[in-house]
Design goal:
The chain is α/β, with parallel strands linked by helices and 160 residues long. It has one domain: Rossmann fold. It is built from five helices and seven strands. It has a seven-stranded mixed sheet, sandwiched between helices. Helix 4 packs across helix 5.
Length: 160
């Protein structure tokens, strides 16, 4: 099965990060994921890519725009992004000149389009800007994709 990730970048605490990682790993195993799709943003996307790497499951990096690296505020996040990008089986860079909401939304749509199932690390709230997790989940729903909701706030896992 092909799985895509959408999810929050800021997961609040190390405990939450550990819980999200465990839930994503369980879902990857349960749904027999054989290929992943991610934009490699900090947070959920990078956790997903790390798990896939550890299981030797190939993933495609769908990069929203030229200059995407400028969105990484901390040097450790940028270094991790570069490391994960080098490990991607394939890199697709969208035709946007700079990082912007429309580019993020289009990257999320491509993740959904390529995937059989979407793993959504999401608090259930509407997106704060175009291309946020809530928007990608709504797009996945419109495409009738199977969605595994990993809620980092309530620590609940469900299919929606």
């Amino acid at each position: 099965m092909k799985a895509g990730i959408t999810g929050h970048q800021h997961l609040v605490s190390p405990e939450t990060v550990h819980w999200v990682a465990a839930m994503l790993e369980n879902a990857i195993d349960k749904y027999h994921v054989q290929q992943g799709f991610t934009s490699l943003a900090i947070g959920a996307d990078q956790i997903f890519a790390e798990i896939l790497m550890g299981k030797n499951i190939p993933y495609v990096a769908i990069i929203p725009s030229q200059g995407y690296e400028t969105t990484f505020q901390k040097s450790e996040h940028l270094l991790n992004y570069r490391r994960l990008l080098k490990s991607a089986a394939k890199i697709v860079t969208l035709n946007f000149e700079k990082p912007e909401e429309r580019a993020f939304y289009e990257a999320g749509r491509q993740v959904v389009d390529y995937s059989d199932i979407i793993l959504a690390v999401w608090d259930g709230q509407p997106a704060k800007g175009l291309g946020g997790t809530g928007d990608v989940v709504e797009y996945a729903r419109s495409k009738k994709k199977r969605i595994v909701h990993v809620n980092p706030i309530t620590k609940n896992l469900s299919e929606i």
